[in-house]
Design goal:
The protein is mostly helical and 148 residues long. The protein has one domain. The chain is built from six helices and no strands. It is flat. 16% of the residues are buried.
């Protein structure tokens, strides 16, 4: 149990979350391949998954600042992202709602890719949040005590 205590107060959360992420990531890779009808579709599925991971990683990082300075910096980024979303993306939502009723939107491949994106997004966001909140802050503490 001594080795586990080095992982902080929630070692099993860290361990099970990272192992689960590994298995779900492998499942996503396999699904991207299985859902792709050809090499181009397979690569597009991969691109969707990578986009989900990168966006999830960024949001997971924004949700779990290490210290007050980082929290202050992140609040500025959140405001800029919010302004972009509310200004540009919401202004273009009418185009999105025009596409939804069309038959092309409800193709199986479109819905599969939306699911691949969402799984990758939430998986990445959750694992970054857990590692930054429960694990990396534990590693940072000894350095802070040396500086004081």
């Amino acid at each position: 149990m001594n080795r586990l205590s080095k992982l902080g107060n929630y070692p099993l959360t860290i361990i099970t979350s990272n192992i689960s992420t590994l298995f779900i990531g492998i499942a996503l890779i396999w699904l991207a391949y299985e859902l792709g009808a050809d090499d181009q579709a397979y690569l597009f599925n991969w691109l969707i998954i990578l986009l989900g991971f990168v966006i999830g990683w960024g949001i997971g990082t924004l949700l779990s600042p290490f210290n007050p300075d980082e929290k202050e910096n992140f609040s500025g980024m959140v405001k800029a992202i919010s302004a972009f979303i509310s200004g540009y993306i919401l202004a273009k939502m009418d185009k999105f709602f025009e596409v939804i009723p069309s038959r092309d939107f409800f193709q199986e491949s479109t819905l599969e890719r939306i699911i691949l994106f969402l799984v990758a997004f939430f998986l990445s966001m959750i694992i970054v949040f857990i590692n930054r909140t429960y694990f990396l802050k534990i590693l940072e503490r000894p350095n802070q005590s040396e500086n004081q």
